[in-house]
Protein: Phenylalanine--tRNA ligase alpha subunit
Amino acid sequence: MQERLKELQTEALERVNTADDLKELNEIRVSYLGKKGPITEVLKGMGKLSAEERPKMGALANEVRDAIAAAIESKQKNLEEAAVAAKLAAEMIDVTLPGRPVKSGNHHPLTRVVEEIEDLFIGMGYTVAEGPEVEKDYYNFEALNLPKDHPARDMQDSFYITEDILLRTQTSPVQARTMEKHQGKGPVKIICPGKVFRRDHDDATHSHQFMQIEGLVVDENIRMSDLKGTLEVFAKAMFGSDREIRLRPSFFPFTEPSVEVDVSCFKCGGKGCNICKKTGWIEILGAGMVHPNVLEMSGFDSKKYSGFAFGMGVERIAMLKYGIDDIRHFYTNDVRFLKQFSIHE
Structure:
């Protein structure tokens, strides 16, 4: 029995020493140290031994078990360390290699124009006001001196949801809502950027959805000269310090008097070219003094308060500023187009 235990120890240690992976090592563990292993089978014959031999044989069996277990544990540790080392070698990163550049996005040209205009007017003491894109007919038309039977409504073919709810056709409702919140007390000094919607056939210069920025100032003793001075600052900031503006009489239901605003052509300097259609001037926005009816409907005393308002299409400003010839470029998500405005390349 003693010889058999020594043989099993020698045999087990040899197998442990030649084991190549953890799976094989575990099989050796089960084979020799399990309840059905050869060592257990040998110990079943201890009943035939004398009382003096049994303790000695039990001690020897424990020594054999401990020796095999210790060899398996040591081998397992070596195999695990080798596996980790192999994995690290396979996943090694050469930190001396140059990094792969990560392309970052940039602002859409319309966003850049909006932010540039916002920064300009915030610097002049304006605040940015916003309102709902799904608007009430009252704020979109009636509060702006456009009653239900007004012919000027035909100029803005609208997307109506119900009889009294529509997609706003201009950002002017934000002005009406803001004046209403002031409850007849000035001053009011805001710009209103946002999307607007009109039924239109999409082509190079028209879109059923576009962006506007409108401005409003209401206070005591506001004059047309204040409007002109404000727009001159805007034109020079957006198109160049040598630009000039001119005001031409026009009509808008919510302003009186009303004007169309032109800027001197930034390509030809007023001499005449294909951009300004040989006139030397480019139309950029509409403006005027706030109509007394609009002031009264919003709770302001038109004898005490006056104001001016202006509105521009963001796409038109961007097209003029960047020389873009088709409004549809803004909405087709063509990466080649957008890359032209990247500040990183």
Residues 53-90 form the longest helix (38 residues). The mean pLDDT is 86.
